Amino acid sequence: MRNSDARRRLVLNAIIEDYIATREPVGSKAVARRHNLGVSPATIRNDMAQLEEAGLIVQPHTSAGRIPTDSGYRAFVDAIADIKPLSVPQRKAIEQILTQSVDLDDVVNRAVRLLAQITQQVAVVQYPSLQRTLLRHIELVALSKQLILIVLIANTGRVEQRTVEVEDILSEESVDLIRKAANEHLVGMEMRHLGKKIPTTLEALPPLIRPAGKIVFTAVAKMLQSEGEEKVVVAGTGNLSRYDYDFAHSISPVLDLLEEQVILLRLITQQEQGINVKIGSENTEEALAETSIVSTNYGVDNEADIARLGIIGPTRMDYRGAMAGVYAVAQYLTSILSSE
Description:
The chain is α+β, with helices and mostly antiparallel strands. About 45% of the residues lie in helices and about 20% in strands.
């Protein structure tokens, strides 16, 4: 990279960092004074003219400094080589709070609140998809002689249950045989593939209880078919009020969108693995044209596509801090769930 190109990159970074910190348009004298680039304000003005011509910054009104455009933020984010680590106190706080969780609901709710607190943005955490997790255990509870409670336990700690009625009266021994066959043949499989093993599992049962077993296993398959991925948890919507002045009109459309679980899920899940940043106009939802979304995946036992989490905030956000917070919470969440 030529010296002038490298310097313009530094000037762009300086403008973005100062604008994020102050929300005030940034002038050449301020860049020269605050960032010690070793060149005169006149040289910086020339660099700013080049950056403006490239569409990376814009002058909001005459005689003002410059502010970054979505393209400028994109160039800034793409140049971030390493995600800065959180401070030691922050890391200890995350670990302590998440390790105190008692079940999946608790750990997800703790994680989303932590993420909102660390980043000071709106945080969104998707529940682990039942279909993409592994079956840890199937429990059958005889509520009566013909009514059975099915409990599926995933390796994430997620629990799903359903009650089914069988045609024949079942003894406790028969229920126990169905339970043992299910756990022997199905445990350790991905939930979405359980249906393929149902015929083999039925063959392991005595002929007289196969009809009841078929009802139970069919109910299990239906539980997975009906299991959607619409479950997300949101925290920190109040943080948006701190950035009301960052929106040209109102934050109301963004708040309304945060109520739409399906849209939220699509926004954070239709991304590649790893840290992803969608900036302003890159977002497909019109309500998010002045926001950025930082998201990543988290997993269990190195399964990288179990679910995702992320934050939503104004384009004028601390991208390095947001990426660090999202990454750290995802790593701790993965660790906690893997140890369940």
